[in-house]
Specification:
The chain has 112 residues and is mainly α. It has helices at 3-6, 13-20, 24-33, 51-66, 71-110; strands at residues 10-11, 40-41, 47-50. α4 (51-66) crosses α5 (71-110).
Length: 112
């Protein structure tokens, strides 16, 4: 998330869908399938996702889209090992960031 989004407390369903490049219908479906996702609802059922909700979605996205798990398997994994699953996701995210930094450094060195 950008620094502008870091200061924000709640996000609309459209903003969250754009973050993960998924449609809003999928987020609503995951909300029914995974009790860990519980956005606040305003008037007329408008959803407001907190940063915690977004982290839950990030974990579910990684399990379902990244690792290819079925929803039932992802749900079971989250239930049994929630903390370990999130730690693994954080490690993978950090490794991707490090890889990007290394690729940038390599390009800079090759350009000398």
């Amino acid at each position: 998330m950008s620094s502008e989004k870091d200061s924000k407390m709640f996000f609309s369903i459209k903003e969250v869908a754009d973050m993960f490049n998924v449609n809003e219908t999928l987020l609503r479906y995951w909300e029914r399938e995974f009790p860990q996702i519980s956005p606040k609802k305003g008037g007329r059922g408008v959803r407001f996702y907190s940063k915690d909700d977004i982290e839950q979605i990030r974990t579910i996205y990684d399990l379902v889209k990244g690792r290819g798990l079925k929803l039932a398997a992802a749900r079971e994994l989250l239930k049994k090992n929630k903390e370990g699953t999130q730690q693994t996701l954080e490690v993978v995210k950090r490794l991707k960031e490090i890889r990007e930094e290394l690729v940038t450094m390599k390009k800079a060195v090759e350009g000398m």
